[in-house]
Amino acid sequence: MTTNEQITAAADDLAETIRNKMNEEFYHTYIVYQEHLWSRIESTATSARNAIVVYTVLNATDADGMLGSLRNIFGGSFGNPLADPARGYIDDVASYITDWYGTAAEAFRINFLNPYPEIRQNQIALVRELALAIEGYQAIVEETRAKVVAIANQGCAALNSIGTPLPVVLSVAAAFVGVVAAVATAPATIIGVSGALIAGGLAMLGGGLSVAGAVAGETPTPSEAIIQGGNVEEVVSSIYSALTLLRQDRDNAEAKLVAVLQHDLALVETARTLAAQREVNLFVPYQPGVIGVFSGEDVDFRLSTSGS
Fold first, then answer.
1. Whole-angstrom Cα distance, residue 74 to residue 270?
2. Where do transmembrane segments lie in this chain (predicted)?
3. Would 22 disulfide with which of 1, 11, 41, 294, CB 3.0-4.6 Å?
């Protein structure tokens, strides 16, 4: 993990190297120092430092609280969705109605009781999907912070070796894809993925979206940025260009993340619509029809999965 102290230290080293190298350049160029030269040196160094230090605002640990809350649904380890207490309640209900017979009883079992275990499994998997999205976001932030330090360090190296091109690999989007792939390809016993979930088409765990491919809002970036220049200011300019490419790489990663969330939201909204129409779906159970106690309306159970 890249700390704020590491980012700040890299920024300070870059600024000091810029001051020293510009001072050397101007010493050989100008016979007499002028005030505006000092201002130019300090402005260049300070601006470059600020462009690096600003990344301390991004912190992957900011999402730890939300991620921890989601993990509690899995017993603290994403380990065993089958231990979910709600599944025990549905088993209790099944035992209570073993002696209930007739059309209403059959409709209750078919339309509500029988689909519920898979629906609940899918709900838990949906939470796991959201947790995976947060883990992906943390990977985006952490990789971005690490690459900022790499850019600053390569900037210092380029300043100490004027004219030598030094690369920085851009891998923020790849880091996000890697986190998703590591979980989505894990055995079902590890992540608790059921057959019903696969039918549900969740973006990552259900294979509903290829996060490795380009998505809307993504602009392809080169695989690396090159830091180089024939003098200090040219090197600094290439550092800014590298930071621009890094931001673009991060934007691409976030575009993939947004596409995932939009895909899954559409699935849930469809499920909610079906539930409102009293139709069985993969994520939202509907309430069985009973006599409306307050309205007096007789709404009996219906032996149907497509309407009330």
1. 25
2. 168-190, 196-216
3. 41
